[in-house]
Specification:
Blueprint (H helix, E strand, L loop, with lengths): L4 E8 L2 H13 L5 E14 L2 E15 L3 H11 L8 E4 L5 H11 L4
Antiparallel strand pairs: 1-3, 1-4, 2-3
C-alpha cells in the first residue's frame, strides 16, 4: 500500500500566530514542513459583510492519514473562529521528497 500525501492550506492573521502554529505542527510531527507566505490579502464574506484582511498563508506538507489529527490540532490553537483548513491531494511528487516527508513524520529510533 502506497502512502498518500496532501498539501494543507491555512491562513493566519499575523506572523506570530503563523510561525507559532507552523512550529507546533512540525514539533507534533503532524507536518514535515510548513512554508509561511506573508503578504496575502484575502477578500471574503463574514457575518454578511465583505471583508478584506492581510494574512499569512501556511503551506503544510503531510500524509493524508494524518489530516484528521492535523485539522483538530489547528482548530484547537488557531485564533480564528472558523480557520481556513483546506487539504489538496498530492497527485505526484519526487520520490525522495515524499520519502523525506514520511521519515519526518515517523522517525525511526
Amino acid at each position: 500500500m502506497s502512502t498518500e500525501y496532501c498539501l494543507v492550506l491555512c491562513t493566519c492573521p499575523d506572523a506570530d500566530s503563523a510561525g507559532a502554529l507552523a512550529e507546533a505542527l512540525v514539533e507534533a510531527r503532524l507536518a514535515a514542513c510548513v512554508n509561511l507566505l506573508p503578504g496575502l490579502v484575502s477578500v471574503y464574506t463574514w457575518e454578511g459583510k465583505t471583508e478584506r484582511a492581510s494574512e499569512h498563508l501556511l503551506l503544510i506538507k503531510t500524509e493524508a492519514a494524518l489530516y484528521p489529527a492535523l485539522e483538530t490540532f489547528i482548530q484547537s490553537r488557531h485564533p480564528y473562529d472558523v480557520p481556513e483548513i483546506v487539504a489538496l491531494p498530492v497527485a505526484r511528487g519526487s520520490a525522495p521528497y515524499l520519502h523525506w516527508i514520511s521519515a519526518c513524520l515517523h522517525p525511526q529510533p
